[in-house]
Amino acid sequence: MQQTETAQGYVKNIWDSVKTTLVGMKITWRYMLQKPITVQYPDERMPIPDRYRGIHYLEQEKCINCLACARACPIDCIEMEAVRHGKELEWISFTLDYQKCMFCELCVYPCPKDCIHMGTEYAFVTFDRSEFKHDLLSFKGMAREARIRMKEAEAKKAAKEAAKAAGVKVEDSKAEEGDGE
Amino acid sequence: MTPALALAQQSAAVEVGSGSNAFLEGLVAALGAYLPMWALWLGAAVTGVAIVMGLISLIAMFSVWLERKVAGHIQCRYGPMYVGWHGWLQSIADGVKLLLKEDMIPRDADRVLFMLAPALVLAAIVAAMAAYPLAPGVFFADIDLGVFFVIAMSSMTTIGVVMAGWASNSKWTVFGAMREAAQVVAYEIPLGVALLVPVMVAGTLNMREASEMQSGWYGMGWFMFKNPFMLPAFVLYFIAALAETKRAPFDLPEAESELVAGFMTEYSGIRWSFFFMEEYAAMFLMSALAAVFFLGGFESPLTWAAGEFFGRELFVKGASGATELNLQAIPYHAVAGLTLLVKSFAGIFLMMWLRWTLPRVRVDQVMTMGYKYLTPLALVCAIGAALWEAGKQALLG
Ligand code: SF4
Ligand code: SF4
Question: Cβ separation of A32 and B77 shorter than 8 Å?
């Protein structure tokens, strides 16, 4: 609304305000009828690119506890603990501290087994800060296959030892027999 | 205006049929032998107030939901979506939340005025609401000065708002209250004068009668089409009504970007919700007035057809000579009531649409618009309409 003293200006003000209001209403009407562009977040999500760097995931069966990823991390947020049983691993923890992590992906490249990856999940909400120390393990202790492999290996070893012991025994008995003869 | 006075205004309670208070009569017939007259009268009054209050809260709840949906869709979002189908129960959830909120009064506030203000605002709007006709034969109070009464009562809320602003003892609230007072004083005039145009054509201030007068032309004999000055008068009335009900672009009393929340900055919980109920009820009433005096009230082709088909009289003289309820006319009254309701909500929708279209105007612009534009234009309309009507009578006899 301009400050106009002339009668012409007065009429023009009225005309302008009516016209601009109608134009504005036309625009908002169009917006109102259009489909909303928002995404109902927890129910629907925007598509995420495949190479998005979100929360990590670990292929635990492949991991060999070599610590290469932990060493590569510039801010030391990966910690892991596992007990070795011969070739097999008994996992205790593999934690990633998301209070520190900056999602730089540097931990992914050095992995010799290509088993740590960055996922597409980005929403990480907790009630307590301590929960940001996130455990990537999908199971604790040993994998079933690993246990079976270990049992097999143990059985084989035992069998070998038994065979060995038996062989010695045989030899012994032979020797005894021989002795006897 | 205290609730007790509002009660007195409501004494008519639910009147059914012209002139008779069917509700009170029914009560007397049923309980007159056991209870004194004043108790029955009080009972009828309390029932009336309870019904009006219920109506106001229903209207407020629905309007809040509608407002949020309209706002959302205009901004290309959805608005509430989770509580019920498209969030239609959201207002109930919000109401429960408001009821459970802590009741806070600032330490330095004037306690009595602070607590009285929302009650006064609500009482005034309850009283004004009593003039709303539910259907041609069903109303709370058939007031001959209907329009006058509604406008007087709804400007009563201004006193409550100024009271709230002053009692809160905060600069934001005082600014809000001052703006409200200035704005209402400025816009009361064009509002009244613009309403004068249809009132002049109708020759009555009674809302029910004014609506009846528009039933010609198969339900399309609206005042809107009766006089060339009607359309500008309608636009002027609508603009002034926006300012009266503190709606954007005239929401200066609660301008949230300048004054936190204006006069209700210090209010919370249920007291705050009273102000909100008042705002939506006032919007509804202003739209209802516009519907009755410009847009045909109960009348539409559908109402006309229902009236022709089912008959219009809700009360007929029975065979024995006593008045009886004519059950056949109920569909007509339902259609008529719904028509007015739909028209009123169309007005509310228009107010919302404008709110989300226009930015807030400045204080000086509000004053300029009120005094320099609306008032003279409304006067021109009124005089023009009067001359037109006089000329029509002189020419056509
Ligand atoms: S993404 Fe970067 S900061 Fe995060 S754990 Fe891997 S190396 Fe460390
Ligand atoms: S670098 Fe790969 S294999 Fe080595 S500890 Fe990390 S995740 Fe496991």
Answer: no
